[in-house]
Amino acid sequence: MQTPMQSALQTPNPAPTTAPAPDFSAWSAARLAEVERALDAALAPQAPAALGLAMRYAVLDGGKRLRPLLVWAAAEAAAGAPAAALASATHTAVLRAACAVELIHAYSLVHDDLPCMDNDVLRRGKPTVHVQYGEATALLAGDALQVLAFELLLEQPDAALGAALALQLARAAGHLGMAGGQAIDLASVGRRLSLAELEDMHRRKTGALLLASVQMGALAGGADAAALAALTRYGQALGLAFQVIDDVLDVVADSGTLGKTAGKDAAADKPTFVSLMGLNGARQYAHDLLAQAHAALHERPVAAAQTLHDLADWVLHRSH
Amino acid sequence: MQTPMQSALQTPNPAPTTAPAPDFSAWSAARLAEVERALDAALAPQAPAALGLAMRYAVLDGGKRLRPLLVWAAAEAAAGAPAAALASATHTAVLRAACAVELIHAYSLVHDDLPCMDNDVLRRGKPTVHVQYGEATALLAGDALQVLAFELLLEQPDAALGAALALQLARAAGHLGMAGGQAIDLASVGRRLSLAELEDMHRRKTGALLLASVQMGALAGGADAAALAALTRYGQALGLAFQVIDDVLDVVADSGTLGKTAGKDAAADKPTFVSLMGLNGARQYAHDLLAQAHAALHERPVAAAQTLHDLADWVLHRSH
Question: What are A315's strand-pairing partners?
């Protein structure tokens, strides 16, 4: 029997793993340290019974934190200034937006992993929340994480900005966004979707929250209409690229590397970009989408967009 | 075999059923007709797959709509004017608050009824959402109903008022409110709670949203600090009275009258006001709480509070 590490080494890599530029690493480490502190402080120390523990378990010490990084990178690009140079109210708004998108993401994973959905037992290399705390507590923890995201956004000095951010997040998470995409996913098992149908599903299921991360960062950073339009094109291409790579990794990576169960799409007979386009076709499509994301950044309105550029590279070349 | 109607007639009534005053009936019919139209319009006509149908099934054509009525009655009391005389933006805010609290209530019922929670098959006289649409769709429908409540509040002409209402609702629904109360409930099965512990659980589990209904109505209606304080005392007493009566009905009513499974607290070995105080003690306590709710209204700051007075009577004397 192979250990996860051994089989990871034996699995062909989907794309060359490029080491990010040193300044990107330093930037993301600094931003994530701040997000982790804020999440730790926000996460329900007074929640009764096992609820607070389950909420913390679902969010802390795990995950790539791609969405908070997108919020921060978009905010800095829109503001044309690094985090340290932002006005206090702006900094607060960006940080709360970064935490809020991660809380929504975490809640969706907790509910997705439940036995009535994907019935998954492994997430971020740990037992899933319902395995650790029971299904009922996992259900409640997901519910409470969703509403905590809105509470965080609505409780800030710039109330009008908080409300605008909360409305963007609600639309992305709701029945026309993430929840709607999950409903399409449920209805698609065993069906042959067209590429357009598959893309529509993923635009909602994962793309809407990734796009909202970029748009919320842009809004909090004070983007004008032209910058917002360019960043929206970036977020749309990136969101789709993310899912195409996810489908590739589901085929070529192993559970130890992914930190979640590999090969489950094929096992569940779910349509994927790989099943529709083949492995090489899906890889090529991801590269094309990456190029689209980069191109959106090189238009006039977005300055200071190197970090967004690097983030898109990171999404494409990630191994988990 | 008895039909539900026959056994309802044979069941001793928990309290005399008083017919509400004619003006209260006309008032509630008019307010509810408006709320039903607004919910019907808000409920996800474009949601993909079965999600929209499940969301509509969970909310429309059922329920006492106590929470929307509390929003309306508190708003009219705070404004000192009936709905028809409110300014347009105020009217919109009150109506959206009324819909939002009902969406949160409906989502909580959908998730509560799931097999991993109460595993209930009957609600409002119909099969529960997961029986009708499957567990996965019920889970998603609950998630989408929760976020729709915030979308409704945040999408209105008076954005600042919408944000303030959404923050009140988030706190009431979250880990320190409704979700926290449910976590205590999960942890309390088979334990002997003190009366203080039982009240703390219900203050969160059902009381927080009932109180928020009153407070959101008060805020939307423009209550000053003194009126808000009096209405808060009213909402606290009413919220607790509601749960005491619920426990009484669980013992003395039958499923046909309740529209949900009767006797399930005792079957689940859950602590209740009846198990702690006895049937007569619980009834007396409900009457005392009703008197407290009425007394709060008779203090100086709240004029035009007859409808709130009548609503409290209705809560106490309801048979389901």
Answer: none
**So what's the pLDDT on residue B267?**
66
Contacts of A192 (CB under 8 A, 6+ apart): A271
d(CA A186, CA A184): 5
Residue A138 tokens read as 């996992």
CB contact, 8 Å: A179 with chain B? yes
The predicted structure's pLDDT at residue B20: 52
Q: Among B86, B216, B236, B77, which Cα is nearest to B152's?
A: B216
The count of other CB atoms within 10 Å of the CB of residue A267 is: 10
Average pLDDT over residues B16-28: 70
As to burial, measured by CB atoms within 10 angstroms (0-12 exposed, 13-18 middle, 19+ buried), residue A85 is exposed
Q: How many CB atoms neighbour CB A295 within 10 A?
A: 13
Distance from the Cα of A239 to chain B's closest Cα (Å) equals 20
Per-residue confidence (pLDDT) for residue B11, from 0 to 100: 34
Contact A287, A40 (CB under 8 A): no
If we measure between CA atoms, which residue out of B71, B174, B225 comes closest to residue A155?
A: B174
Q: CB distance A160–B163 less than 8 Å? A: yes
Question: Is the CB of residue A178 less than 8 Å from the CB of residue A209?
Answer: yes
Instruction: Using a CB–CB cutoff of 8 Å, tell me whether A136 touches chain B.
Output: yes
B chain contacts of residue A136, beta-carbon cutoff 8 Å: 116-117, 186
CB contacts, 8 Å: A160 with chain B: 159-160, 163
Cβ pair A116:B114 closer than 8 A: yes
Mean pLDDT is lowest, of A12-21, A54-63, B17-26, B159-168, for A12-21
How many whole angstroms separate alpha carbon B51 and alpha carbon B56?
A: 9
The half-sphere exposure of B299 on its side-chain side, counting CA atoms within 13 A, is 15
- Is A10 at the interface with chain B, CB within 8 A? no
- Tokens standing for residue A244: 């195409």
Q: Is B254 helix (H, G, I), strand (E, B) or coil?
A: coil
A129 touches chain B (CB under 8 A): no
Q: What is the mean pLDDT of residues A68-82?
A: 95
Q: What is the DSSP string of B119-170?
A: ---EETTEE-HHHHH-HHHHHHHHHHHHHHHHHHHHSSS-HHHHHHHHHHHH
Q: What domains, with CATH codes, occur in chain B?
A: 21-317 (1.10.600.10)
Q: Does B73 touch chain A (CB under 8 A)?
A: no
* Residues A318/A93, Cβ–Cβ less than 8 Å: no
Contact B184, B124 (CB under 8 A): no
A41 touches chain B (CB under 8 A): no
ipTM of the complex: 0.91
pLDDT computed for residue A303 by the predictor: 62
Strands B126-127 and B122-123: antiparallel
pLDDT in tens, B86-98: 999 999 999 999 9
Say yes or no for a CB contact (<8 Å) between A151 and B140: no
Residue B225: both structure tokens together:
């600090």
Closest partner residue to B143 (CB to CB) among A46, A47, A179 is A179
Q: Which residues, at least 6 apart from B61, have a Cβ–Cβ distance to it below 8 Å?
A: none
CA A258 remoteness from chain centre: 15
Exposure on the CB side of residue B309, measured as CA atoms within 13 A: 13
